[in-house]
From TrEMBL:
Keyword Thylakoid attached: no
SUPFAM superfamilies, per the entry: Actin depolymerizing proteins
Keywords of this entry: Actin-binding
Lineage: superkingdom: Eukaryota
Gene3D superfamilies assigned: Severin (3.40.20.10)
UniProt-recorded name of the protein: ADF-H domain-containing protein
SMART domains in the cross-refs: ADF
Stated family: Belongs to the actin-binding proteins ADF family.
Gene Ontology BP annotations: actin filament depolymerization
Organism: Lactuca saligna (Willowleaf lettuce)
Sequence ranges assigned to domain ADF-H in this UniProt record: 5-139
Amino acid sequence: MANAASGMAVHDDCKLKFMDLKAKRTFRFIIYKIEEKQKQVMVEKLGEPAETYDDFAACLPADECRYAVFDFDFMTAENVPKSRIFFIAWSPDTARVRSKMIYASSKDRFKRELDGIQIELQATDPTEVGLDVIRSRAN
């Protein structure tokens, strides 16, 4: 079903891969891209479980918008291993205005498709999705 605000549909693969990340931990991260010609959100890249946060950050294009999901593992102050699933709306200042508008108007509907998001981040430059920011939001 297309998003009323922007007319974007969500490809089934987006939800299926997210379920794999959430339930089976098959992936460390997923990068999603809106294909404007096809008017739908598609999976652009899947991060292997062994990949790091730096690998993920390197996949975010410098001048294009993306949605991303990252499964962040960390230790609590009590030494208990935990994990949080982050949804990141990446909209760099250098992206085209039209692209930023399409991503912004499609975000809430797309995010609702991914059941299990725990923390949301909106980022316009790499410092806003730095590992220190992720760590501070995870606790």
